[in-house]
Structures are given as structure tokens and as C-alpha cells.
Amino acid sequence: MRNLPLCAIALLISFLCASQSYSGKETDNYSGITSLSFNPANLADSRFKTDINLIQVSSTTSNDYYAFNFSELFNDASGISFEESGMRFPSQNNNVYQNLDILGPSFLFNLSDKHSLAISTRVRGYLNLREVNGNLFETLQDGDILNKDFNIDMENLNGTAHAWGEAGLTYGFVVMNKKNHFLKAGVTAKYLLGAGGFFMNSNNINGSYDSVAETISANGDLSYAAANSTDEDDDFDFGNGSSSIGGDIGLIYEYRPELKKDRKLDSLALRGHNQYRLKLGLSITDIGSITYQDVNIDTYSISGTVSASDFDEDFEQGLEDNYSFISNTQDVTVQLPTALRYSLDLRVDRNIYIAATGAVGLNASTDPYSNNQLNYTTIVPRYESRLFTLYTNISFVEYADMTWGAGLRFGPLSFGSGSILSNLISEDSQAADFYIGLKIPFHHRLKSKKKKNKFKELI
User: Fold this and answer.
1) Residue 360 forms beta bridges with which residues?
2) Residues 6+ apart with CB under 8 A from 313
3) Is 92 helix (H, G, I), strand (E, B) or coil?
4) Measured over all CA atoms, what is the biggest interatomic distance in the chain, rounded to whole angstroms?
5) Are residues 198 and 5 in contact, defined by beta-carbon separation less than 8 angstroms?
6) How far is Cα 320 from Cα 172, in angstroms, rounded to an integer?
7) Residue 408, SS3?
8) What number of other Cβ atoms are within 10 A of residue 47's Cβ?
9) Where is the signal peptide (predicted)?
10) Most buried of 89, 372, 395, 444, CB within 10 angstroms?
11) In angstroms, how far is CA 9 from the centroid of its own chain?
């Protein structure tokens, strides 16, 4: 007998924190193949002859229910209880977001000066839990709850947990290269392999608990389903043949004024240098969906008064024993977290930049079978060079307060967090994330041999 998966996931709310994938790293012109996840147009006219990714891992989470004082970890890490030490902000419609992103073996290469290709592998995991009644959840945490009356009031509860793999082929090309204006584009075609998902939906559940009679009186509906999971352990399974095609598409414009006073900024330095003063990017990512066949969907009609003890051992069994339900088998199509991404990057000095990036989720939050990209905007000042990039970033993240983080790339190694600095100084952090990556980069020459004589004219 399966336990109700997303009800169990809901219990994780009291341990959660927040941000977005590879926070800040996407602005680095030397981030290589990682940047294609944000805008495939980054592939064209990159600073690389070849960039070989070994592994990149990013883990992010967000919620508007729970906050934690991370400084306590440094004072007494062994005695910390995340459940007891955190601050809670319950409301009628709390939300949870989680994202795991693993970029596996991948590489990019150039076909010519204007055309490039990349091949990538990736594993993704997303959780969206929406419109959770945090006040009710807070009540249920009370150890003396069975001795108190309380009301049950929940509307538009919606949850989707989904995992899948990707094999991507990216093509980037130069669209326009005029005196001061440069435009490039990119597109990624993805083979999507679904691992599975858990889904829960309720239009409303209203009722009350009677502490004297120890009964629950309620009316409403609840449905849930599991795709590609086993009855024994609710594990995801990549082997059931749920596959599809998806993609990303993007454009990048660069303003490249003639900068003959500084030869390193002149266009004759070619592909070894960044040649822009201003760069603007726009992309749509995670276009597509995955269809799972023959998914069992259980829909319960909740009505009447039942004994609370019926739910002590097994929540699902309590539902089956007390309420009528319909079990249907049908195909379920899960929407990927389609997002509109934008970026602006201003070159202040030779190695000094300031960027603004962000994303807006395009899927409807009411869709019971979809994941949603977290909405955010990030400001990223940075020092950037071939050898290393150091940046700090300030983010305004959905479901959380402002976060402050930092990151470093040194040669083949990169690591960072979009919230580590704010976590160190805040007593009620709602943000925690990290990324780490290792790759083998092969850069373009700082100046082309073919253009060496013309380059000398600027010295």
C-alpha cells in the first residue's frame, strides 16, 4: 500500500529554505556550457574553443512558511533542531518550491567562427506545493492537538513533484555582426526521459475536529496520483519508457562600440575577449512536456463524520475506509517549468561588470500537472577574467525575502551560493542554496594570429 506521497512531502515544509539554480553564475562569460541552461544563444561566439563539463550540481529550495537562524549552526551544530529552532510564518496559502539540477558530462565545440554546437546531459527534479493552509499545518504540529478543537479549511491545494532526464543538442549561430551591433541566437533540442512524478489536488476541504468525541467532520475532495513509482518504496524509475521532446530558444544582443583607446576591448581582439559594453539577453527555457501512460488517479469524495483514530497508522487507508472514491487509469501530461528569462550585462571597466538577470514562470499555478519556475530578479556585480571570476549577488526571490550570496570560479572549479551571506547575518533566513562544478576549459587565444598585424596597429 502506498502512503500518500505529497502529504508526506508537505511535512518537509518545516525544514525548508530558498533560491534559484546556479545563482549568479549565469552572468559569467566563462561559465561555458552551464550558461546554455539559461540562454542557448550563449553558445555562439563564446570564449571557448571547447568546454568540457564533468559535473555541476545545484540544489535550491524556497518556501514562505519557515525561516531559520543559520548562525546557530556555528554556535552549537550538534544541538540544533531545525523543527524547534526555526520561525514560522503560517498563512492560508503557504507555498513550497524545490529544485535539483545536475549537469552531467557535456561539451561544446565550434563548427566555424559563426556556428557552434553543444551536447549536454542533465538530471532535473522539481517540487511545487501550492496553497497549503499553513495555519492548519501549524495547528497539527501541536503535541496536544488531540485535546483541542480546530477547524479544517483548505482551498485550491495543488502539488507536483517530478523528476526527469535530458539529453540536449544546442546550436548557436551569429545572426548579425555589424560595426557596433552584434546579434546571436541559439536553440536547444532536448530528448526528455521521464523518471516519474507525484501529484495531488484539492478544490476544497472544509470541516472541524471534535476533541471530545475525537471525530473529524469534513466535506470536500482530494485526488492524487503517482507516475512511474513502485508500490514498495515510491521510488522514481527511468526505465518505463516515458519520453518526449522539448527545447529552449534564445537571443542575445551586444552593443560593441569601437574602443581603440583600449586594445583589449577592440573587436580586432576577436573571440578571446569580451567585446561588448552592453549585452541584452532573452530566452524561453523548458518548453515541452512528458506524458505518462496508464497512471492511476484516486479521487476521494470527502463527506461525513469519522473517527480520527482511523488515520493514525495509514492516512491513505483511512481515506479508503471512510470515504467513497473513484480510481481511474489515464494518461497524464506533465508540463516542464517553462520560463521567460532575461538578462542585462554592463561592462563598467576592463574586468568589472554589473548584471541583472531574472526569470518569470509561464505555467499556470492552478494546473495540477505542471511545475513552475520560481520568479526572481538578481543583481550581480562581478570581477571577471579568464583565470577567475568573483561575484556577489542580491536576489529578490518569490516566497522569500531578499537574499545575498557570492560565488567564485577559479580555473576548472566553481562554487557558490545565492544566499550564504544573508544567512550569516539574518536571524530568520528563508533562503539556502548552493552549487559546485568541475570542468575542463579550452579558451580561444587572446588575439588571433590572422589578425595580429592589424592588432599591432592599435598599440
Assistant:
1) 340
2) none
3) coil
4) 92
5) yes
6) 54
7) strand
8) 19
9) 1-23
10) 395
11) 17
Beta bridge partners of 441: 51
Residue 73 is predicted with a pLDDT of 63
CA atoms of 302 and 358, how far apart (whole Å): 41
Helix (H, G, I), strand (E, B) or coil at 154: strand
* Residue where the block lists cell 539556502: 432
412, 441 contact by CB (below 8 A): yes
The H or E element spanning position 8 is helix 5-10
Q: How far apart are CA 405 and CA 421, in angstroms?
A: 5
Q: In whole angstroms, what is the distance from residue 156 CA to residue 162 CA?
A: 19
pLDDT higher than 60, residue 91: yes
- How distant, in Å, are the alpha carbons of 29, 36, 255, 281, 443 from that of 177? 19, 21, 10, 16, 21
Closest-CA residue to 377 (of 361, 356, 363): 356
| Local structure of residue 111 (DSSP, 8 states) | S
Residue 424, SS3 per DSSP = helix
Q: Residue 279: left (phi > 0), alpha (psi -120 to 50), or beta?
A: beta
Q: What pTM value is reported for the model?
A: 0.87
Name the region of 241 (left: φ>0; alpha: ψ -120 to 50; beta: rest).
Answer: left
Phi, psi of 188 (to 5 degrees): -120, 125
Whether the CB-CB separation of 382 and 27 falls below 8 Å is answered with: yes
The pLDDT tens digits of the residues spanning 123-164 come to: 999 999 999 888 888 777 766 667 788 888 889 999 999 999
Q: How many other β-carbons are positioned within 10 Å of the β-carbon of residue 212?
A: 7
Hey, what's the cell of 225? 496520483
DSSP 214-238: TEEEEEEEEEEEEES--TTT----G
Q: Cell 516515458 maps to which residue? A: 242
- Mean pLDDT over each residue of the chain, to the nearest integer: 84
By C-alpha distance, which of 164, 137, 170, 131 is closest to 38? Answer: 170
**Domains plus CATH for the chain?**
5-456 (2.40.160)
Which residues contact residue 71 at a Cβ distance below 8 angstroms, ignoring those fewer than 6 apart? 424, 425, 427
Alpha-carbon distance 382 to 52, whole Å? 24
Fill in the DSSP letter of residue 426.
Answer: -
Residue among 80, 282, 243, 252 nearest 182 (CA): 252
